[in-house]
Specification:
The complex is a heterodimer of chains A (about 725) and B (about 160). With about 725 residues, chain A is an alpha+beta fold. Chains A and B meet through helix 1 and helix 17 of A and helix 2, helix 3, helix 4 and helix 5 of B.
């Protein structure tokens, strides 16, 4: 290695556009997704689903199916030890329906057989006797006085009612120069991640152990729910996350197919592959709920917002899932984007006989934001104000605490507004674009991970292990779920940057419960912030170990060692030691080096206590966005074409500018689809659009150019300023 | 009914006995283990299963394998030559045309068909060629950039191959 002075500089990995560390696997077809695992003995798993939206199960007879040659296992609720779910207080779902079905398509039984034809034939031989019950497909019907309760413990079919009244709303309204109201209904939408749900489960009958590869964003939660459902010790289960074909929240909770694969493998005492069809993936759902929002805002003549009074009713579907969290977000996240203090909120999460909703990208916040942004735009017009001026009249100053006690420790919305306004030439073009063309704008924000995890255990939010052995490569072990968002890449960048070494020294091994430390998973935009910081902590610990070894070898004090990444030396005159030489020294008397890094949030970020559930919304950092959209409207058909989007995103320091741009473009586009064409519909509980032709995901033909700027204010809370940067976008695109 | 299927897959000729009702995608994935080709829908909706049949992009989930008698099939698994990524594979990697990677095999094969027929496509040609392929991660912006980049470097790679 050359040690001439100009050559020796630490390698920079942060702030540099980096392709994904697992990119070549994806472009060569070598990446293994759950449905790609196969072996000669793997059985085909298939699920029998309810034909009714609401019915008691009187009897299930599986004897004929079990007798069919080639059938190796049939499972029902009798094979389940317990219910499952998301929140510890609301685990009311079963892998296979127990006693009652509550939506069309709910899993009732499942078979494992030697091939598809046998499995399908076996399903037809399962006899289920149902007693139909009245079913409720709208929130209003489910809330009617005479409606039957879907769940005994949820009277009136209310999953959760949320109520808060902060500041002084009445006084705020009285002080307003203009008060306006909106009443909007936003459609239910589905993630439609490209990979249908799948799980590959191997049961070792000799040792009574299960190894499973589920298509999930949350391997740890799947692990917990498998042990609960199967009545197995946690330690007898190994969850390995394969490549994941997108998530967007559809896999942010354990799905029945994950559990059913485990149940079938154990009963068949072998290997079972469960691959859902696209239709079944739609039915599994966990999308964004249909929401009815009524909102009233008071505004001064200069655009200052004086009060907000709103209600949200969400049609949550048949089971609790994330429901309580979703309705809490719909209220709490009215705060944190603008300087507003007087807010009254009433929220209802309602249980209905439709597939369960979940934590879709921008969890709970998007539809509230849509209503609010539209309303203040209209009010601006009425007051003769520019939409940008209204936003600027209500900016926050960080650091601050909102009225509901959310910590805002950095704030870049002002810079986002400036960029979006300039890049779109808003001032010169707004209102002057000729017939049928126009510009619109909106802002949004989102958390960088919930500061309080939903399962509070006292563990750090994130833990990273680094291992260095005689070959001088660095192995990064993480439980964080790479689902295509680039989490493994950003962790490798954080470690490489801290040590000043090239990223090629680092190998990331992610999400194998037998090998990697626990991580809560990829949801609520937590990974870059939480796990990124833990990676930096681990790398600093490794650096200290290496510096101590270099000091021993160079016979100088550790504080005199200059660490230049690939070279450790005592000073410019010193030829120094190579990274490999330092590693060999560090191994002496110690053996393989293993270090740990952790990250934890601070109590100030844990959200408030002013109402029940006020912790929801608490985060270490908010990301902010401002967006301008140019559209053309066909005067004869009213068809809208989105011609171009400009979006500025405050994600803190962009650790990987390439990935930030890609994530922002993808989420802006997803929001556009929800605004323009996507909507699930049901006929008496039957999904009408359970395919990608009728459920209109935008194609490349109708997808506009999206120009992105990411701004750079850093949060004072962490050394490199990592901040998750994905979710704010879909909110600004305005859903239907 | 079963048939002996004789065809070329990624440059290798094969003879396999297959059921007449077998789809090409199942033949590729289940019978001969080429799992690079993906199934993202229940038939013809998403384009993830796109392969080349005699240089033309086709949905392998809508194609009966027996109809490929004597055909030349190419999948993403066979695009790398001499362990080097093809221009499109590099483009999708370096320009972040692949995020989760599930639509990527189909995107790359549809783009491969385009570049063979039209080595210097404009943006409209790229959009038209990929109109049957859905991506849910990228908003397509970086996919277009990936194909443009690949078109630029394709000649460069060909020149290097000649020189070596």
């Amino acid at each position: 290695m050359s040690t001439s002075e100009q050559d020796i500089i630490p390698v920079q990995s942060i702030g540099v556009p980096k392709p994904l560390v697992d990119g070549p696997e994806k472009t060569t077809g070598k990446a293994m997704f759950a449905a790609d695992f196969q072996s000669i003995e793997a059985l085909v798993g298939r699920i029998l689903r309810s034909p009714h939206a609401h019915a008691n199960i009187i009897r299930i007879d599986t004897s004929k199916a079990e007798a069919l040659p080639g059938v190796k296992a049939v499972v029902t609720e009798a094979d389940c030890s317990d219910s499952y779910g998301v929140l510890p207080i609301a685990m009311n779902e079963w892998a296979l329906a127990r006693g009652r079905v509550r939506y069309r398509g709910e899993p009732v039984a499942a078979v494992a057989a030697i091939n598809v034809a046998t499995a399908q034939a076996a399903l037809d031989l399962i006899e289920v006797t149902y007693e139909e019950l009245p079913a409720y497909f709208t929130a209003a019907d489910a809330r009617a006085d005479d409606a039957l309760d879907l769940h005994q413990e949820k009277p009136g079919n209310i999953e959760r009612e949320v109520d808060f009244d902060l500041g002084d709303v009445d006084q705020g309204m009285a002080a307003a120069d203009l008060i306006r109201e909106v009443d909007v209904r936003c459609a239910e939408v589905c993630q439609v991640q490209m990979e249908p749900h799948a799980a590959y489960a191997e049961y070792d009958p000799g040792r009574e152990r299960l190894t499973i590869r589920p298509s999930t964003q949350v391997p740890f939660y799947v692990h917990k729910m498998l042990s609960r459902t199967m009545g197995m010790a946690d330690s007898h289960i190994r969850v390995i996350k394969p490549h994941i074909g997108g998530g967007f929240g559809s896999r942010t909770e354990t799905l029945q197919s994950d559990l059913i694969a485990g149940l079938l493998a154990r009963k068949a005492r072998g290997t079972v592959r469960v691959v859902l069809s696209r239709e079944e993936t739609f039915i599994t759902h966990r999308g964004r709920p249909e929401s009815h929002i009524k909102m009233k805002v008071g505004m001064k003549a200069d655009g200052t917002i004086t009060a907000t009074d709103f209600s949200v009713v969400q049609r949550g579907g048949a089971y609790s899932g994330y429901g309580i969290v979703t309705i809490l977000y719909a209220g709490s996240m009215i705060f944190g984007l603008y300087d507003i203090s007087s807010v009254r909120f009433k929220g209802f999460r309602v249980l209905t006989n439709t597939p369960p909703c979940g934590a879709f990208r921008g969890h709970g916040t998007v539809k509230t934001r849509f209503a609010f942004e539209g309303l203040i735009d209209d009010m601006a017009t009425e007051l003769g104000l520019d939409p940008f001026a209204v936003r600027r009249a209500n900016l926050l100053v960080a650091p601050t605490m909102t009225e509901n006690d959310l910590l805002v420790n950095s704030y870049g919305l002002d810079q986002c507004l400036d960029w979006a306004e300039a890049a779109s030439a808003w001032k010169a073009r707004k209102g002057k674009m000729g017939p049928n063309k126009g510009l619109g704008m909106a802002c949004s924000h989102y958390i960088s991970g919930a500061s309080k995890p939903k399962h509070w255990t006292g563990e750090p939010h994130a833990t990273i292990h680094l291992r260095v052995d005689w070959d001088a490569s660095i192995t990064l072990l993480t439980g964080a779920a790479e689902i295509g968002q680039g989490s493994s890449t950003v962790m490798a960048q954080c470690v490489a940057e801290t040590l000043g070494v090239d990223m090629s020294r680092i190998r990331v091994i992610a999400s194998d419960s037998a090998v990697t430390p626990k991580d809560n998973g990829s949801y609520s935009s937590r990974v870059t912030f939480m796990v990124g910081n833990a990676s930096i902590d681990a790398a600093q610990n490794l650096k200290a170990t290496l510096v101590a070894a270099a000091a021993r070898k160079l016979e100088i004090a550790p504080e005199d060692v200059e660490c230049l990444g690939e070279v450790f030396r005592g000073g410019q005159q010193d030829q120094g030691l190579s990274f490999d030489e330092v590693v060999m020294e560090a191994l002496k008397g110690e053996g393989t080096i293993t270090v740990k890094g952790t990250y934890d949030t601070i109590p100030e970020s844990w959200g408030g206590k002013k109402y029940r559930g006020a912790a929801i919304g608490g985060t270490m950092a908010f990301s902010y966005a401002a967006q301008v959209v140019e559209v053309t409207v066909d005067p004869y058909t009213a068809e809208i074409t989105v011609d171009k989007v400009w979006v500025a995103h405050d994600c803190g320091r962009a650790l990987n500018p390439l990935a930030v741009e890609g994530q922002v473009q993808g989420s802006v586009w997803m929001g556009m689809g929800q605004a323009m064409s996507e909507e699930t519909q049901y006929h008496e509980g039957l999904l009408l659009h359970a395919n990608m032709l009728d459920y209109r995901v935008p194609t490349i033909i109708e997808s506009p150019p999206i120009e992105v700027a990411s701004s750079k204010p850093t949060t004072p809370m962490d050394p490199l300023g990592p901040r998750k940067r994905v979710k704010a976008r879909s909110a600004a695109s305005c859903p239907p | 009914m079963k048939t002996v299927l004789s065809l070329s897959v990624n440059g290798t000729t094969r003879d396999d006995v297959i059921p007449d009702n077998m789809l090409l995608v199942d033949y590729l994935r289940e019978n001969i283990g080429l799992t690079g080709t993906k199934v993202g829908c229940d038939g013809g909706e998403c384009g993830a299963c796109t392969v080349l049949i005699n240089d033309r992009p086709r949905h392998s989930c809508l194609t009966l394998a027996v109809t490929c008698q004597g055909a030349r099939i190419e999948t993403v698994d066979g695009l790398s030559r001499d362990n080097r990524l093809s221009a499109l594979q590099r483009g999708f990697d370096e320009k972040l045309g692949a995020q989760c990677g599930f639509c990527t095999p189909g995107m790359i094969m549809a783009s491969e068909a385009l570049l063979r027929a039209n080595p210097k496509p404009d943006e409209a040609a790229i959009r038209n060629a990929l109109a049957a392929n859905i991506c849910r991660c990228t908003g397509y912006v970086k996919i277009i950039e990936a194909v443009q980049f690949a078109a630029e470097i394709a000649n460069e790679i060909a020149d290097e191959a000649l020189a070596s």
